[in-house]
Amino acid sequence: MRLAFALVLLATPVTAGVEEVVTDHIRPGLSAFVEQTTALELAADTDCRAPALRVPFHAAFDAWLRIGDLRLGPTEHAAISIAFWPDDRGFTQRTIGALVRDEAPAVSDPEAFSEVSVAGRGFFALEMLMYDPLYRDYRRDDYRCRLARAISADLAAQAKALRAAWSDFAGTLTSGGADGNATYLSPEEATRAVYTQILSSLEFTRDSRIGRPLGTFERPRPKRAEAWRSGRSLHDALVTVEAAVETATLLAGHDLPETQAALLRLRDVAGNVTDPSFQSVDDPGERLKVEIVQQRVKEVEAAIEAEVGAPMGIAPGFNSQDGD
Fold this sequence. Notes:
The chain is mainly alpha-helical. The chain is built from twelve helices and no strands. It has two domains: 158 residues, CATH 1.20.1420.20; 133 residues. The chain is globular, with a radius of gyration of 21 Å.
């Protein structure tokens, strides 16, 4: 059985799976992102106060995370204004503070709001409005309520624009080597690009989503966790790893038993973390639990390298998130 499985892997063409990734992961993921951000916009139109937005906010954020780490084509450029993070210098807090202080009129004009700094748009700006004690207790007639409505509408508009852009780019990704395709000069380049983004996502989760709040033992940095105000930090890590595994399975074109086993181990140890916002990493016992989660993410990454990269004879290339 082991020999038969190895022969199947060796027979898998390096070009396999890109079409499946687009058809079964990216396209439905983009549609879900549009659906959930539209629901968020409608909820904000009805009641823009923070408690009313929490359920649609989390649903829309989840939809983004399932596709947002695949920084290919239009997503690479759109990501910064949809999810401006990491933000170690506090640009989001300063931008939201300035918008609220000045009661910037851009909230009443979608075109003008699309020109607002990326730190004042997207999920992390909305999270700050909804969850930070400085802003969250706003009323219907408060400027902050109008700002929450503007951010929600802007997210819905960005989701629609991203899906439209992918309707063109998808053909580029799936036609590597075709005449006129100057982006991917061969099918192998397209496959390698997708594979690189899978590993980039896992690396980003391991080193940034988990590594940033861990900091060092002497100096943990809990406030550097992703979406810590809304308690999503651990959840975000799990969602992005699950999305990476789904994408890797489609790219490979067959089941990945070692990868699935590594994912199960990750889910198991994640259940031991008592503070999903990673705000307790200064406690040695809690820190150890988060470090074990980080190690399990690395195991998922190694399993994908063994079950997808090695059999296909491909290795990761440039990481589009290196600039973070």
